[in-house]
Structure formats: structure tokens, C-alpha cells
Amino acid sequence: MTEKATILCVEDESLLLEDLRDELIEEGYRVLTAGDGKAALEVLSTDRPDLILCDMMMPRMDGPSLLKEIRDNHKKLDNVPFIFLTAKATRDDIIMGKRLGVDDYLTKPVDYDLLLATVDASIGQIKRIEEQNNKKLRMLYKALQDKRHKGPATKKPRPLTISIITAKPNLIQPLTTAMRELGCEVSFISEDQLAKRSFDLQNVDLLFMMYSKVVHYYLKYVTEERPQDWDGETIILAPPKITVEQRNIITDSGVDDFIEYPYPPVDIFKLILKKVKGAPAMASGTTH
Questions:
Q1: Of 106, 125, 144, which residue constitutes the final position of a domain?
Q2: How far is CA 160 from CA 32, 125, 150, 170, 248, in A?
Q3: Is residue 39 within 8 Å of residue 48, measured between CB atoms?
Q4: Domain extent at residue 246
Q5: Residue 152 half-sphere exposure, CB side, CA atoms within 13 Å?
Q6: What is the pLDDT of residues 15-32, one digit of tens each?
Q7: pTM of the full predicted structure?
Q8: Over the stretch 135-144, which tens digit does the pLDDT of each residue have?
Q9: Cβ atoms < 10 Å from Cβ of 276
Q10: What is residue 212's three-state secondary structure?
């Protein structure tokens, strides 16, 4: 792995927490730490780890309670592996954890070679599953495009056009790269263009808006004053920490959909596939 993942370590023993952090950092991982379940939820409100390593017995909120809270109320973390770290794991403990959705157990005292192997294997499995899903979606997209190629000889498939309103295009570069690999035409609209209303949606199939104060302010303009004959769709890319008020504003604004951070490529691909199924073919020689 050239780019290591982010690990959240949740442990109330400060010396052990420090040792865990040092070992993982030395291995090249980015490490977040929390002293109990409550503190872990605060971290998760602003950051999304690739794996959670958590002690079972802690004050305020223990490991099983944290796991249950995450599996019940934090759907964006559904595919994040959760590993219990415990001094004693009885048969009943293991059964309870499995029912809550724990992925693995490690025992204390910590065998760091086993810990690092377990962490690497868990993250590797998730990445393989994600890549398989992405590959299936790319194949489906290609099949749909090939099907449209078989239309009238005077027509050819029109590439799906996507515009993204954002002040920081580099933050979503992996997404835009994936979109272009699918054959989509991708362009950016700056927040300054949004504020000045100097952009055209006429030939845009999907409009993604990276949520910000500026996008928040002009959201109603985008949804209410778009061209009447425009058949595109608007999608909000929601921030890592979104308040109930912000969520309600997004829901009530008239946007067609929204995707929560970290913007899973699978969710993006599904929107693209849904749109391309109904996209018309473009007559030869037509330009955008």
C-alpha cells in the first residue's frame, strides 16, 4: 500500500493508546485517537476512518455501546471494519459482538505483529470489495453505452455531461477522475460563477454541488430558477459533519439527491447509470 489508511483507536488506558498510535504511525497509518466511546463519536462527527480499533471496557460509553450506535445511526460507516480489543473475550462477549456487527477480536496483551496483520487484512478486504463493485458498475455503464451505439446509424451516443460547483476541485479529484474514466465530460463551476449566476445548465445532465456557505445561500436559485426545459438532476455533496438544520434545508430546497461524505464512488456511479439509461442519443455533428 503506497498510501496508508486512517485508523481510529479508542482506548481508555492512555499508555496503551499511545503505544497503539506509535505502532500504527510507524507502519505508515494516519491515526486518530479517543479515550472512550463518547470521545470517539466526536471524532467521527468530523472525520471518517478506514478502520476502528476499540477497547471493550471503557467509562462513559463502552465498546459494544459505541459499535451499536455506529451500526444503528451512522450508515456512512457501514463498510468501516470494527475490531474489538479486549483483555477477556468470553463466548457470550463474542456472540454479542458478532450480532452487533463487529468484524474481529484482538486480545490483550497486544501482539503487535498480529494487530498489524489484522488491520492490513481488514482494510485490504474492504478495498477489494469496493473495487469489485466499481468494476461491475463500469462494466454495466459500458454495456449501456454499447447498446446505445447500436441505434440509428445517423446517431452516436452522447457522452454524459457533468458539472460540479466547488471552490476546491482538488478535494474531489478521485471522483472526477473516475467520472472521466467512464467517458463522462466533466467541468467545474466556481462559487464566484454561482454568485454571479454566470453559468449555463442547458447541456448539463448532472449538476453536483459541493456544500458550502456560498452553495447554501444560492441553493434556492439553482433549484428554482433553472431552465424550465432542463431535464438534468441536481445533487448535493454533503459535508462530513452536517447539522439537522442543514439536512432539512437541503431536503426542502428541491435538489434531486444528496450524497454524504466521503462520497462513495459506488453511489456516484449509480447516479450516472440511472441517468445514462434515459439519456438521448446525439445526432452526428451536434456540439455542446
A1: 125
A2: 39, 32, 17, 21, 30
A3: no
A4: 158-281
A5: 7
A6: 999 999 999 999 999 999
A7: 0.57
A8: 766 676 666 5
A9: 22
A10: coil
